[in-house]
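Please decode residue identities from the backbone states below.
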């Protein structure tokens, strides 16, 4: 029997480049007894380009998702993507603090009855709502002996995001420690990976990602844990230029591994740098 119902906003990347993030998040939450209910007919959050055209139009796209969630009876929403998370928070902030904007949106799209749904990212939901005891109770294969560096990227520095510590975030460190991994403390955990510059200025992304990858190697990491589709792509795809071969996996893939999700459902064939050899050597596969 499922214990909780939680609204779920996958975001566009979940249907393409980060299918393994979406798939393992759904698997893990199912096993934890949390029913994810996808927002009906959800649309793009505006991503990075939306606010360039118009900040109000970009935020309105996320407002539509909040409205659809509310109409579906979803009072809380979880999203795995940091950009989606920040955009949903921004729309909620605009709607609740700008009466003129709220009136325009209400007239154009329909008003939200009551307060907008509360928005969570994966990390703060795990820390604030799930907790250590519950996660540990589901462990079947603790990640003992696996040296992991947590990489947050720009998540905690996005506008409207008030989660964890902006300069030294620790939420992912904590969850990894619950899984039994050896969490390596490093000073690069929230340095930028290049983000959306991977297309218009690949040279900048290559330099920033290479710096991070070589730092992870210097710290003795077996792999890098991430919670952002763009961070995963940039770090994973730039390894040839960095001269490294460090697997970059989503936190949910590691959670799935630790709580016994079947190997074929972990999405381990998706990364450019394959993690199977390492995980077999460590005795996890």
């Amino acid at each position: 029997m499922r214990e909780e119902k939680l609204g779920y906003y996958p975001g566009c990347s979940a249907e393409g480049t980060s299918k393994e993030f979406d798939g393992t998040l759904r698997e893990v939450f199912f096993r934890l007894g949390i029913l994810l209910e996808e927002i009906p007919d959800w649309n793009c959050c505006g991503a990075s380009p939306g606010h360039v055209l118009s900040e109000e139009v970009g935020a309105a796209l996320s407002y539509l998702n909040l409205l659809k969630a509310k109409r579906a009876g979803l009072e809380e929403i979880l999203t795995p993507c940091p950009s989606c998370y920040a955009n949903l928070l921004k729309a909620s902030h605009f709607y609740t603090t700008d009466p003129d904007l709220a009136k325009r949106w209400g007239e154009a799209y329909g008003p939200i009855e009551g307060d907008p749904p509360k928005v969570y990212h994966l990390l703060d939901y795990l820390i604030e709502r799930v907790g250590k005891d519950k996660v540990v109770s589901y462990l079947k294969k603790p990640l003992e002996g696996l040296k992991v560096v947590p990489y947050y990227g720009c998540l905690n520095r996005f506008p409207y995001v008030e989660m964890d510590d902006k300069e030294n975030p620790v939420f992912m460190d904590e969850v990894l420690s619950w899984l039994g991994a050896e969490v390596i403390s490093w000073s690069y955990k929230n340095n930028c990976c290049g983000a959306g510059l991977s297309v218009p200025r690949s040279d900048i992304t290559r330099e920033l990602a290479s710096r991070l990858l070589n730092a992870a190697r210097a710290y003795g990491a077996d792999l890098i844990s991430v919670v952002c589709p763009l961070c995963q792509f940039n770090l994973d795809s730039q390894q040839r230029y960095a001269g490294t071969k460090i697997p970059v996996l989503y936190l949910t893939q590691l959670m799935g591994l630790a709580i016994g999700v079947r190997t074929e459902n972990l999405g381990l064939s998706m990364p450019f740098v394959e993690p199977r050899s390492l995980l077999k050597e460590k005795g996890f596969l």
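Observation: The CA atoms of residues 138 and 154 lie 30 Å apart.
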